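User: I need a structural model of Methyl-accepting chemotaxis protein McpB from Neomoorella stamsii for a docking pre-check later this week. Nothing fancy, just the predicted structure tokens so I can convert them on my end. Input:
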Amino acid sequence: MLKRINLAIGSRRISVINKIALALGLLLLFIIPVVGSSFFLREQALIRREYQGKGQEIARTVALFAAEYILLGNLDFLTDLVHKLKSYGNIEYVIITDGSGRVLAASTTNSPAGGKTVGVKTAATANEFTAPITPFGGETIGYVRLGLNPAQLKNSTLAMAVDWALFALAAVLAGIFLAAILTKRILQKPLAELTAAAELVSAGDFSSRANVLGGDELGDLANSFNTMSFHLANLIQSVKINIADVQKGMEQLHSSLQTAGRTNSRFLRNLACLKENAEEQLKALALSASLAEQLANRFQQTSERQKASFNLTNNALEAGEKGATAVRAATSKLNDFYHELAESPKLQALLLEKGELWSAGIANLAALSDHLAPFVVEVALEAAKSGNEGLTAAAENLSQALRDTYTYLKNLRLELIALMDACRANREALEKSLLQVEALQDNLATSTTTWVELRQILQGKKEVELEIQGELEWLATASHTLTKDFADYLPALNKLLQGSLSSDGQLPLADWQEIDSLTKKLLRMIERLKALAWQYKT
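Assistant: Understood. Predicted structure tokens for Methyl-accepting chemotaxis protein McpB:
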């Protein structure tokens, strides 16, 4: 029955591998457009600001030259300047007016009309930029109106949008492809083994085993499944043996009763022997009833263990959720640590660069002190020859100070070199640490994927355990029914055997008919029990 249900569900379901690949694809499909849109809007705003800044800068520059030409009254140079600016590809028009709005020079006759147009907001909207013409320290004598062609801005925005769309499509396809490959390599074989073993067990073949290698949760699940199949196989085998014994005894009893009905006289002669055989058969039936009760208890215990396993699966599923959350938090903290650690090599490189300069300066100072020492000695000798004791003492003090300075600078340079060596070693260690942190980031990403896959596997195990629990409850109910039937039939049959003979030594007809009816019921009950047991292969 479970096999039919699994086949019916399997025709409509989607595999775990495809679900993981689809989920990752949808995640990338959501994240990449959001990030791309944010970056696109930011870059578009930056380009627009640069565009507006470029227009304002050109307008102000033209205003500086125009102020000089207007003050000199040289409108020809002003016209040449306007036409030269118009020859640039991205400038639409240039208009120079005086303070009253009269046009002094214009690049085209189709330029927008108007006087003093001032304001950043209006200029940005119309792609027009206005700058006042103000001499140094004077008042405004005119205005420069500059119009830029927006085609370059539109082309840059369109090219950026196309590049981001192609990148997003390539990233989504690559993510789905990698997720499908990794999931197939990790989950496909263990899940196929567990599915095949579960289908065989649901069909009644308890000898099947799930061969899943490894010490992970899938391996533990396969071992638990194999142990459960082994115990169920032993239980069914014991039931089969007991049923065979009971059936054999009942068949012998039924044959004896039929022979006794046909030949009453022969039955009377052999009644004592028959009663003894019947008592033995009753004992066998009592033993079978006890075994049936044990079977019912075993089914009940198995059902309780299955419920406990179901609870453990729920706990494992919750633990998987917590583990995935913890791994994501650790990944976030590790990324922050990586960014902070990446700044240290830059500081150390700057320190090494400055240390080289400082070392060279200290070496020059030490060399200068060393070169001054002979000169000071000569000064001391000349002072001694001339008898100037003050100069001699000063020269000696200076010589001693130069020697001390040379020694101090030499030691300081050695310490600086040692510090630079330590800084280089620390820099190499930091680079190795960065590589290790990157490797740890990759491991955490793999762990996150593994936690998600484990949660989906546990969810599938939970569904299978629900089906097995339903079957075990049905078996427990059937076993209790059989035990109740044994408890009802055995006392009546024992009573009939004890009072089988009447006072005149004849077998009462009513008792014989009742015995025959009970025997037939017992045979039918045994057939039902046998059919129930042979549903399972051992």
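Before docking, keep this in mind: DSSP finds eleven helices and four strands in the chain.
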